[in-house]
Amino acid sequence: MTTTVEPGQRTFISAKTLSPQAPTALISREKFNDVLHETNSVGLLLVQAPAGYGKTTTLAERLAALQADSAWFRLDAPDNDPALFAAYLAHALEEARPGTCPQTVKTLSDTGFDNLQAFLTHLLAEMPLEADPLYLVLDDYHLMTSPEIHDAIRFLLRHQPGYLVLVLLTRTAPPIGVAQLRMQGRMLEITARDLGFDADEAQHYFESRLRYEVSRESIERAVRRVEGWISALQLVAAHAHTSVEFNTMVEQFEDGNQFIFDYFDELIGRQLDTDALGFLLRTSILDRFNAFLAMRVAGHSDGQALLNQLISRGYFVMALDSSGLWFRYHPLFSAYLRHLLACSAQENPRSLHQKACDAWREMGSPEDAARHAVKAQDPERIVSLLKQHGRSFFTEGLFTLLQQCLDALSPASIADEPMLTLLRAWVAQSQYKSDEVEQWLAAAEAKLKEHLSEDDLRSVQCEFSAVRAQVAMNFGDSHTALGLATDALEQEARFLPTSKVAAASVMGEALFVEGHLKEALARMQETETLARAHGAHQNVIWALCQQSEISVAMGLLQKAYNVQERAFQYAEEHHLHHLPILEFLFRIRSQVMWEWHHLENAERCALQGIEILEAQGERWHLQSYTTLAKVAQARGRQTLCADYVQKIQKMLASGEYHIDWVANSHATMLSFWDAVRDRDAIQRWLTAAPEYTIDDATNHFLQCNARNWARAYLSLEQPEKARPILEGLQQVAERTGLQTDLNRNHIALSHLYWQLENRDQALHHMREALTLASTTGAVGSFLRLGKVLINVLKGLISDQLIDGMELQRAERLIQLSQQQRDFSRAIRITLDEAIIQDIIDRPDVPELIRTSPLTRREWQILSLIHAGLSNDQIAEHLKVAATTVKTHIRSLYQKQNITHRSEAIELARDLLSKIQGE
Length: 918
Hints:
Blueprint: H1 33-38, E1 44-48, H2 55-65, E2 69-74, H3 82-96, H4 102-110, H5 116-126, E3 134-139, H6 147-159, E4 164-170, H7 178-183, E5 187-190, H8 192-195, H9 199-209, H10 216-226, H11 230-239, H12 243-252, H13 258-268, H14 274-283, H15 291-298, H16 303-312, E6 317-319, E7 327-329, H17 331-343, H18 349-362, H19 366-375, H20 379-395, H21 399-407, H22 411-415, H23 418-430, H24 434-448, H25 454-474, H26 478-488, H27 499-513, H28 517-534, H29 537-553, H30 557-573, H31 582-595, H32 599-612, H33 622-634, H34 638-654, H35 659-675, H36 679-688, H37 700-715, H38 719-736, H39 739-755, H40 759-776, H41 780-783, H42 788-798, H43 804-819, H44 833-841, H45 847-851, H46 856-866, H47 871-878, H48 882-896, H49 901-916
């Protein structure tokens, strides 16, 4: 049956046919321009995404930016009445482009139509055949449930004029023959994946909304946690008043957020019956699922039908690919469902995880099965999985999964199995828990003597030696490590085939730290070959990373880069993007990029390293934070650099790290303290810094550790204490061929002799450093010297001591050094009344400064904003409450017509430069 479109005079709500008003902090989304331009050839643009993805805002903003004509019809549930739908549709077209359908509007009022198809026939007949492009936007189309309206849309799509583009904004797939339209190429689609903010868009949004600075790392983490969901990012912007609150709120998203829980409560409301809600709760334990998994876990005979029902309602069920077979819940929706599951007395999560474990195992996915076995706290299933797949978990580098599995088992059950003991020991070693390693190995040896043959016992002891060799390397005992690794290579590995690969790797590592670089490189190349033969992906990547580090030590940074490219290619070929070892690869790539002063690439690699290890915990981010601090300092972003240095200090204080990590972090901390002239911090560091021995500095990290002492003395203007350290390091570096350290030592020696006013020696060492840089490509190490570098390099140029490549390099370094911001000058003024008056009296100061004078405190805060301090740091510096600082900033912004922090920084830079001689 069709419904008559009844005649009658109607009152129209203007807002329903107007383009929506732009919200605050609107960002331009030019990436959708191409899609809108292509709609002329298809006629339909389907914009489908769950609530809160900015469907309406995005389309309204883009159509306005492109100056496109559009007719908007914002639908409500009552619009399922065909007469009301027809009236508003005609009214929207006539409002957008007067003269489009006046007769249709009159007929609607006077006589009406027999049905919607008759109405559309009359409308389409009256519309001109040709005209400028016009977008007809039907917003919230998911509210339409009338079959007659859906049929009307199909009719419209078959007969619309060429210039008319229909745009449907909807949470669900509309029943208008979408599949056929897609196959025929007659429509374009924008999905939640397209609409969600990427990191660049989120950064732009937060910069326009927040009055404090947030690091790129924090922004990317926020985008990952909410998968670009705009409403969630808006929630953070509205409720996080400091960078600390921002990070805390983002971290809490993993377990849920009450505001978002309330949102989902309202979204679901009473729409779900018991079966549908039960299905959602039971399947919420799955990271991803298809119909088979859903049926096995949820206990429904027709999981696909229930799944389709949920998808049709516009819930946060996300397709994993275009197959339409695999799905997952949005992480925030999943957290909400798990919360409901935990509160439900009718469900048994342990039983659900056991079902999921068995289902994944049937489907040939042991990793997923093991994760659910752990969550089910089921030792029997865990042991069964480890016996069958534990070796592959290890070779693929799934240490976190192994640790979770082994933590769930009793010590006795592990000690009875050599393979489980080896896995337990290697996992403990990877966590730098050396004491635990020996405890596990010793306990197993005591038990295994009771029932293993002499040959089997000897074999397992050799494999145990491989673990012990790596532990010895972690402690810097290369001599012991070599002996144990040699012992491990004597017999074939019976229990963990990659034990010999690990032993070979340790031998290469030991040769490296002892300064035998060529031999170490050859051994690591052999290790790579052996690892490839075993299909040990973890060990292949590790061997390539070690080859890269050795190449860096030899001063062959381009070669190191090329080796890294091979590692990235191997990871790509074998689909290893999940492997934690890739963090090591990104980390050493970021270090090369920083040395070459490719700051954006260095930052990107450090951020990717953090993303890879996000699930492992923050303690593993130390090296990435160190790179980000270096990048922030090089860019002159003092607040970010200070924040990262603070994080690094806390991490070093709360955990034990290899001296390589410690030395690298300390070098960055010292560089920052030197830049801000914090001599007290440097002096405190000297009282607790790791000891050094010059003769043992046969590798890059012990060279760095000792050089840190020398740099600290130079910062404190005690060059005589630094000289024996640097001269000793230089001799060792020359003997062992540590070319990159030679380069860095020459730079430090140049600084030392400049302090001693020995100009000739300072220029000599700088010239040597520039010569070495022709091979290493070093830039970052030079720039760490600060403004002293400019004086020394200008001395070399004025004395005509360099030419060719060295001259070009010196000129580039001078240019880069001049661009670097001097942190020490940022907070060197306490603005008193005389200085403030000096600024105001200047003729080139904006009139707004005179008419809206700042208070003395506001001037001080302005100078500290310019210095890059956060609100909390300003409060600490001025010894006042953070709320007081916010009050002053609000007043300052109002007086100067400022909306966000970047404008305040620009104003301060302009004003303060007038009295600082910049």
